[in-house]
Design a protein that fits this description.
With 126 residues, the protein is α+β, with helices and mostly antiparallel strands. Helices cover 50% and strands 20% of the residues. It is built from six helices and three strands; from the N terminus they run αβαβααααβ. Strands 1-3-2 form a three-stranded antiparallel beta sheet. The longest helix is centred in the C-terminal third of the chain and has 21 residues, at 95-115. The two termini are 23 Å apart.
Length: 126
């Protein structure tokens, strides 16, 4: 969601009073000094900033569950999937795109493992 506050404001508008909404999202656990490998990157906000944005949209945050460690194995799966698609990537007419994908995904994964977490937040509309 490019504009989290706007999206959640709309969710709140259509959610009945007393309703609950669950959000799962990345959050920043540590600042990176630079984007991974020079790849343009817009880091997620820290968890406290994420919850502040949710509250700004009119929700009460009733539960925050940090599931970062449970999601770590998915990074290895992502890298394996990229490797498995190597022949598909190599068949792309524009070799530059294939090279960028093969270079970027491991850098993004490495960056994510070090600097991002993943949380499930339960929201309540009063």
């Amino acid at each position: 969601m490019p504009d989290l506050t706007r999206a959640l404001t709309e969710v709140r508008r259509v959610l009945r009073p007393g309703g609950r909404f669950v959000v799962a999202d990345f959050f920043e656990v540590s600042k990176a000094s630079a984007p991974p490998g020079g790849i343009p990157f817009n880091p997620p906000p820290p968890l406290d900033e994420l919850t502040d944005r949710i509250r700004a949209a009119g929700f009460e945050v009733t539960d925050v569950l940090d599931i970062t460690e449970a999601t770590r194995p998915t990074y290895a799966e992502l890298l394996a999937a990229v490797r498995a698609q190597r022949s598909t990537l190599d068949s792309i007419r524009d070799a530059r795109i294939a090279e960028q994908v093969q270079r970027a995904i491991p850098l993004i994964v490495e960056h994510a493992q070090e600097h991002t977490g993943y949380a499930v937040l339960t929201l309540h509309r009063s």
